[in-house]
Amino acid sequence: MAVRTLVASLKRLYEKGKKNPGSTAVTIEKLRSMVEEGKITPAEYEYITGEPYDGKKKN
Q1: DSSP secondary-structure letter at 40?
Q2: Is the pTM higher than 0.85?
Q3: Which of 5, 14, 15, 42 could bond 53 through an S-S bridge, CB–CB 3.0 to 4.6 Å?
Q4: Over the range 10-44, which residues count as b (16 or more CB within 10 Å of their CB) and which as e?
């Protein structure tokens, strides 16, 4: 699977946020929003986070 530039950048920013909470990195909530808006696919969400997208918000 070829990875889109956007997805590769989001993965890098998501990993940055996991290592440094509170940074300007991408959050899981933002990624969920991007799936709902159709900007990334559920498969791309899973590639970025390592977790399947279930469509439900986690608390």
Answers
A1: S
A2: no
A3: 42
A4: bbebbeebeeeeeeebbebeebbebbeeeebeeeb
Can you tell me the mean pLDDT for 29-49? 96
- Dist. CA 31–CA 15, nearest whole Å: 12
Neighbours of 53 (CB within 10 A): 18
Instruction: Give 47's contacts (C-beta < 8 A, 6+ positions apart).
Output: 3, 7, 11
Instruction: Provide the pLDDT for residue 45.
Output: 97
What would the mean pLDDT of 23-46 be, rounded to a whole number?
92
Dihedral over Cα of 46, 52, 55, 58: its sign: negative
